[in-house]
Specification:
The complex is a heterodimer of chains A (117) and B (107). Helix content of chain A is 0%, strand content 55%. Chain A is built from no helices and 11 strands. In chain A, the strands form 2 sheets. In chain A, strands 2, 4, 5, 6, 9, 10 and 11 form a 7-stranded mixed β-sheet that branches. Chain A has a 4-stranded antiparallel β-sheet with strand order 1-3-8-7, with no helix packed on it. In chain A, a hairpin with a 7-residue loop joins strand 9 and strand 10. By secondary structure, chain B is mainly beta. In chain B, 0% of the residues lie in helices and 55% in strands. In chain B, strands 2, 4, 5, 9, 10 and 11 form a 6-stranded mixed β-sheet that branches. Chain B has a 5-stranded antiparallel β-sheet with strand order 1-3-8-7-6, with no helix packed on it. In chain B, a hairpin with a 3-residue loop joins strand 9 and strand 10. Chain B is globular and about 40 Å long. Classes of the chains: A mainly beta (117), B mainly beta (107).
């Protein structure tokens, strides 16, 4: 099946620094990528929808200036957590929607665990 | 946002038994209902999905039953195995996820 990778898998940073997370579709092109956040033992919460070549659409309550999303190509989207704080510590997961497949079919990445000290 | 209400929150099933997880949704405008399986520290993986033009879909030991009039859909895992122990999420399209059900299959 289709493969989505995320890098890094785990990151620890100091409060106030910025962290970039990459999401790549390895064997397919993705017009749309999605970013989710998952706190421990909780569900996935959609943060934003990213379309290649255009601005991301953010869900209500998600600060677009804090969570910068760039979808520069059909295989890469990046999420940058700017001026990270301990409350941003979470599991960040991306998914990619295949250009060729069914519209609703998404493939999830393995997630990135962020810990802000 | 439209919600999906998932139950139970946790479930313990004997090996070989049937695991049943339920979800209820609020809006009939959506035509794709997936179930995801997630192991600790991993991203979710699509398990099975259904469109409301059918009432049931089966893939191996996994079955989705869909009740459009009741606005409910459920996941049945037949012959549950310890390796099925994971957290399961239902979703509305892929935009809103249920709170998850932690399944433990015990020998």
């Amino acid at each position: 099946g289709a493969v989505v990778s995320q890098h890094p898998s785990r990151v620890i940073c100091k409060s106030g620094t910025s962290v970039k997370i990459e999401c790549r579709s390895l064997d397919f092109q993705a017009t749309t990528m999605f970013w989710y956040r998952q706190f421990p033992k909780q569900s996935l919460m959609l943060m934003a929808t990213s379309n290649e070549g255009s601005k991301a659409t953010y869900e209500q309550g998600v600060e677009k200036d804090k969570f910068l999303i760039n979808h520069a190509s059909l295989t890469l989207s990046t999420l940058t957590v700017t001026s990270a704080h301990p409350e941003d510590s979470s599991f960040y997961i991306c998914s990619a929607q295949s250009l060729a497949g069914a519209q609703e079919t998404q493939y999830f990445g393995p997630g990135t665990r962020l810990l802000v000290l | 946002q439209q919600q999906v209400k998932q139950s139970p929150q946790s479930l313990i099933v004997q090996k070989g038994g049937i695991s049943i997880i339920n979800c209820a949704y609020e809006n009939t405008a959506f035509d794709y209902f997936p179930w995801y399986q997630q192991f600790p520290g991993k991203g979710p993986a699509l398990l099975i999905a259904i469109r409301p033009d059918v009432s049931e879909k089966k893939e191996g030991r996994f079955t989705i039953s869909f009740n459009k009039s009741a606005k409910q859909f459920s996941l049945h895992i037949m012959d549950s195995q310890p390796g099925d122990s994971a957290t399961y999420f239902c979703a509305r399209l892929n935009l809103v996820f249920g709170k998850g059900t932690r399944l433990s299959v015990i020998a």
